[in-house]
Amino acid sequence: MRFDRRTLSAVLLAVCGAAIAMPVFAEEASTAPAPAIIPLPASLEMDGGCFHPGKVVHFAITGKLTDRRAIASLAHEVLRDAWHHPVTIASARERVDLRLVLAADAGANPESYTLRIARDGIVIRAATETGLFHGLQTLRQIAAPGSDAGAGIPALHISDQPRFRYRGLMLDSARHMQPLAAIKQQLDLMARYKFNTFHWHLTDDQGWRIEIKRYPKLASISSMRKETVIGNPDNGATARDGIPYGGYYTQAQAREIVAYARARHIDVIPEIDMPGHMVAALAAYPELACTPGPFDVYTTWGVSDDILCPSPQTFAFVEGVLDEVMAIFPSHYIHVGGDEAPTTRWIQSALAQDIIRREGLKDEHALQGWFLRRVEAFVRAHGRTIIGWDEILEGGASPTATVMSWRGMQGGIDAVRLGHDVVMSPTSHAYLDYCQSKARSEPPCIGNDLPLRKVYEFEPVPDGLTAEQSAHILGGQGNLWTEYLKTPQDVQYMLFPRSLALAEVLWSPKQARDWNGFLLRLPAQLAELDRLHVKYRPLGAQ
Ligand code: ACM
Known about the structure:
By secondary structure, the protein is of the alpha/beta class.
């Protein structure tokens, strides 16, 4: 038998016996089988032969890790799931099936790693524990669970690092909240696909979801709405369901999420949306508004004219809230919202107009800029950085503020030209609450269409920027608003598989992006989601 490349590929498949797809891949494309990895690694070369684990799978960790136990436990899980053989940690000198090496010279990017699978063993090298973590997630996809107990995996060499340093998903827990277990499962899945930021939208008109000890009525009053609109108010719906809805996360629970995420190398960015989207807080503390109230926690979707008044009481409230929020969430960024704050009440408010005169401000948009710059100074004095929706540019944002561009890409383009850092999350490609097709059978969703392919086509760096401006684009984020998503299953249906497309956009090299290759690699991931009981939208569902 002559071993040309093509027969060799077939033999590899037969010998390794692992679940393998045939994506189009670099120059090996038409011949060598490559594992179905999402997101696609920056570089992957198939070598000849296969690795087969021993009857007991040994692994070893070399280097000075701060959390050796966490990496050991993940390695154990990945190896056990792959082969169902007993797994044991070995001393550094024995022959081992998997060696994890932490070495300062193993890569310049703090998230990079190399993964070499050879006949005599697997080695993952990285300069950080995050790199080792990502390498193990890649190995998990290669050594696909569900393959035969004796199955081997193909020899290969991966050298990988992310294209963007910010790879986020936002979850709205204000409109509907999710059980902690569901959020943890989402974090587990995010880690598999190498997301590193969980933006947690915790407050809105329809509910305040984080315990603040200095303001106890946020838990007792602001967290509850007496009922919820049925259907879409944009289509004229007004009827309410008559069912009280609410709840909040205690500070201990929020800390539990932060720790869970951190163990998966994910930062949690809390959002306290201001000065708009604050009706729930005004229901408990009406003195923070420009008009006397009373206010009810909002029972419909949309934007309210009732926002925070820029008064001394409001600043005391905001600072009191942020003090506790910063104590819970150690993230570099604190999200202060800034979106959809109508100027109606400030136009009518003597207090607001006095500030405009006193500070020589142009108008109410400039007043919002003044408001958020004050908040930014407070956050910065605590060693943190604010991030806000792109409206924060309208009133003149502090240069140290990072901008999250949602009303298309233009806000982000304007922001990088002004020297801001930017995260791109445009409605056109990154709003995962939008419908996945035009079919009437889609579950309730926002009317605009965002099919899987369009998410895959998302390009966070627009044409026409200088290299320096492009470098200010930190990455991108998918946003999941939950007006119509009541259960964790509803949330998963919108997140999967679209978040896998987004994962590849944000991690893989731009030139490696390949829709057909992605589609070939996707079924192996969907099989894994099935195994994990994740409810995703089936491919081609009508
Ligand atoms: C937003 O979608 N209002 C940021």
